[in-house]
Backbone:
């Protein structure tokens, strides 16, 4: 019997606050951030094949050894001595170089999808260790929907509502706007100035759901230097605030900026204005 194709979604993420604490001897940085997943996603499909090969709907995206999906697949092949093939296709819907974790999410989805497709039954810990070799954000996409992350971003603690102890759910409408600006992660780290002292507890700030407190204390350290270097990105935040966002910020190292709205009608109007300005936009709730 020919095995039917299987698919897996690869969601985007947002950073609610991001502290760059210090540079480490290994060249990475210690961070603190809150990750949440979005229902804006790429789609990966695996089909039977005599060997592994990878294709993508976006011709601008490399499909060779530098692609994280390809690297994830070959890690599984080498680790578990896989002899089966697979035709892996990525339907690319998320913008890349935007601070939304699309490439990391694609890599994590590849691990999950091929683990199932090849019947590997890999231990979760093994998948996480492979994920970390692919990128600091990749382990998050194998874990909880919302998490407090430290270390390189790989040390994850599920984010829980302070009152109910249930998994945290963002109670606001979101608008994510991606201007036509590509920001390399290396550039962002060259611009940022690490600081470990006097930092707010991001878990407490986020879980307060107090937007006035968010405006005071929920800070992404990349935002100020990225805005100075790329005024077009700063303009997106200003646009969202002018449209009624109770809070707006850069996600990751950018260039995506998100706005948080208390009312869906206000969010819809802000999203329409951003589209009219020529930006890529996602709107919804998580």
Residues:
């Amino acid at each position: 019997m020919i095995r039917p194709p299987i698919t897996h979604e690869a969601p985007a993420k947002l950073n609610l606050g991001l502290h760059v604490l210090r540079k480490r001897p290994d060249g990475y940085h210690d961070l603190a951030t809150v990750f949440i997943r979005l229902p804006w996603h790429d789609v990966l499909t695996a089909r039977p094949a005599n060997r592994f090969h990878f294709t993508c709907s976006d011709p601008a995206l490399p499909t060779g050894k530098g692609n994280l999906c390809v690297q994830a697949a070959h890690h599984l092949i080498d680790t578990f001595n896989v002899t089966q093939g697979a035709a892996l296709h990525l339907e690319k819907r998320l913008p890349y170089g935007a601070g939304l974790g699309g490439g990391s999410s694609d890599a994590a989805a590849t691990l999950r999808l091929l683990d199932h497709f090849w019947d590997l039954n890999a231990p979760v810990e093994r998948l996480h260790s492979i994920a970390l070799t692919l990128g600091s954000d990749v382990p998050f996409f194998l874990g909880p929907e919302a998490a407090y992350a430290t270390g390189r971003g790989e040390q994850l603690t599920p984010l829980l509502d302070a009152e109910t102890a249930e998994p945290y759910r963002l109670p606001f409408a979101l608008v994510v706007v991606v201007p036509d600006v590509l920001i390399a992660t290396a550039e962002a780290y060259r611009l940022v100035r690490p600081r470990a002292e006097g930092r707010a507890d991001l878990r407490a700030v986020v879980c307060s759901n107090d937007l006035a407190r968010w405006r005071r204390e929920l800070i992404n350290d990349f935002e100020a230097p990225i805005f100075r270097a790329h005024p077009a990105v700063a303009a997106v935040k200003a646009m969202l605030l002018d449209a009624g966002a109770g809070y707006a910020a850069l996600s990751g190292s950018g260039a995506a900026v998100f706005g948080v709205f208390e009312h869906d009608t206000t969010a819809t109007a802000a999203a329409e204005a951003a589209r009219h300005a020529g930006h890529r936009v996602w709107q919804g709730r998580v």
